[in-house]
Amino acid sequence: MWEYSDKVKEHFLKPRNVGVIEDPDGVGEVGSLACGDALTLYFKLDDEGRISDAKFLTFGCASAIASSSALTEMIIGKTLEEAEKVSNEDIAAYLGELPKEKMHCSVMGQEALEKAIANYRGEAEKKVEGQIVCECFGITDREIEKTIREHHLTSIEDVTGYLKAGGGCGKCHDNIQQIMDHVFGRPVAIQPRAKKLTNIQKIRMIEETLEREIKPALHQDGGDIELVDVDGERVMVKLRGTCSGCSASQVTLKNVVEAKLRELVTPELVVEEVLS
């Protein structure tokens, strides 16, 4: 169970600057529903070239919402040159720190800001460089190596916390380990995997993940989800509210709910919808 600071809770429960800016000067979009986190950041400049307004829309967990909210508060009043110096560590520090498993949420905020500023300047979007290592979340070897070097990461779990790489099916763990070996010039011991969960532990973790990570985002759009049963690796749920009968319900189940449960509980889980 993660410990969230009071400021994270405050920005999650009462996020600042949620919404869309009509005719913005800059827009940055990062993430995707397939990853379980998505963020769009908007900003408007005043006559002096300072950010007079910043708003965001996000689909994600409490840390994603809190990081996005904090970012908008941090950049309002700044020039673009000042704003582009805001790092993901600055966002985490502003919130009184984030659990290491959730640092990718602050990274997502920094990347959205970089894209919004590039959009304002008319700069072409950077091409993806390197080879895809984590197919679940589309993370390349270059991104992993860069993040390991910049943040001195020493475990697969640290990499997952910053980039989400390795947080899905787990097939890329060996490749992530090889990248770490290359960075450090020596083998880095792979941390032992957690023991197999008992069924009671699994159900409890599924319930906690639904309550903490999935339901808040669904509630924003008038939807909800109910855990019906767990049979081995099968997780049976019922969608309610606006989610029930929605044409995108299967996308939500597989690319959001299932992906998040695989990331935070166990990678073998399969989510199925109960219709009756």
Sequence of strands across the biggest β-sheet: 1-2-3
Q: Count every beta strand, where a strand is a DSSP E run of 2 or more residues.
A: 8
Query: Pairing-aware structural class of the strands and helices?
Result: alpha+beta
Which runs of at least 5 residues are low in confidence (pLDDT < 50)? none
- Total individual domains: 3
The best one-word shape is globular
Highest-level CATH class of the largest domain: Alpha Beta
Terminal residue distance: 33 Å
Estimate percent helicity.
40-55%
User: What is the fold named in CATH at topology level of the largest domain?
Assistant: Sufe protein. Chain: A
Beta-strand percentage? 15-25%
Mean pLDDT: 86
Q: H/E series, N to C?
A: HEEEHHHHEEHHHHEEHE
Our Rg estimate from Cα atoms comes to 19 Å
CATH architectural grouping of the largest domain: Alpha-Beta Complex
Question: Key terms for this structure?
Answer:
single chain, 276 residues, alpha+beta, Sufe protein. Chain: A, Arc Repressor Mutant, subunit A, GMP Synthetase, Chain A, domain 3, three-stranded mixed β-sheet, 10 helices, 18% strand
What does the model show?
The chain has helices at 6-13, 62-75, 80-83, 88-94, 103-121, 141-151, 156-163, 173-184, 199-220, 249-264; strands at 26-32, 37-45, 51-59, 132-134, 139-140, 223-231, 234-241, 270-273. The chain folds into 3 domains: 6-121, Alpha-Beta Complex (Sufe protein. Chain: A), CATH 3.90.1010.10; 132-184, Orthogonal Bundle (Arc Repressor Mutant, subunit A), CATH 1.10.10; 199-273, GMP Synthetase, Chain A, domain 3. 44% of the residues lie in helices and 18% in strands. It has 276 residues and is of the alpha+beta class. It is globular.
